[in-house]
Amino acid sequence: MICKLSSSDFDAILSVVNDAAQAYKSVIPADRWKEPYMPAEEFRQEVEDGVEFYGWTQNSVLIGVMGIQLVRNVTLIRHAYVLTSHQREGIGEKLLKHLLSIARTPVVLVGTWEAAWSAVRFYEKHEFKLVSKEEKNRLLREYWNIPERQVETSVVLKLHTKHPS
Fold it and tell me: Measured between alpha carbons, how far is 20 from 28 in angstroms, rounded to an integer?
């Protein structure tokens, strides 16, 4: 079941993110990896910056999370993670479809690590298109607040929605 998450879900969200991020440990550049992958203070900052989290629960247990953030004239999909024990069960797809149904901008963007080809393929399967390196650099600097090293090692995928601008 999909539900909007709140501050009371803080620890559960972090648990899902940090468990699921282990799948990317071998593809995230070593100089960008940290333990835990998302510290509590970084997560708090994401929420303060306007990322709204939605989750998939089973038997009252949070299994997957995905964030959505309106930044000026685009919607960003942020922090998409499913517990490693529940990956490949369609949970990410259900969360993504839900977030796309509530996005209200004509453009939705998602950024991920360049070497995370399973994530890239996931978004491409849902009609997102990789942008050029030049556009990627511009978009990451304009809509995300990330270190330059992360800009260098990431990609951006774009989806044009049917929502009016």
Answer: 13
| SS3 assignment for the chain | CEEECCHHHHHHHHHHHHHHHHHHCCCCCCCCCCCCCCCHHHHHHHHHCCCEEEEEEECCEEEEEEEEEEECCEEEEEEEEECHHHCCCCHHHHHHHHHHHHCCCCEEEEEEECCCHHHHHHHHHCCCEECCHHHHHHHHHHHCCCCHHHHHCEEEEEEECCCCC
β-strand partners of 78: 67
* Total number of domains constituting the chain: 1
pLDDT in tens, 64-108: 999 999 999 999 999 999 999 999 999 999 999 999 999 999 999
Whole domain around residue 49: which residue ranges? 2-160
Residue 165 lies in a domain: no
Q: Which residues fall within 8 angstroms of residue 82, CB to CB, at 6 or more apart?
A: 16, 20, 56, 63, 64, 65, 89, 91, 92
CATH number at residue 32: 3.40.630.30
In a domain, 141, yes or no: yes
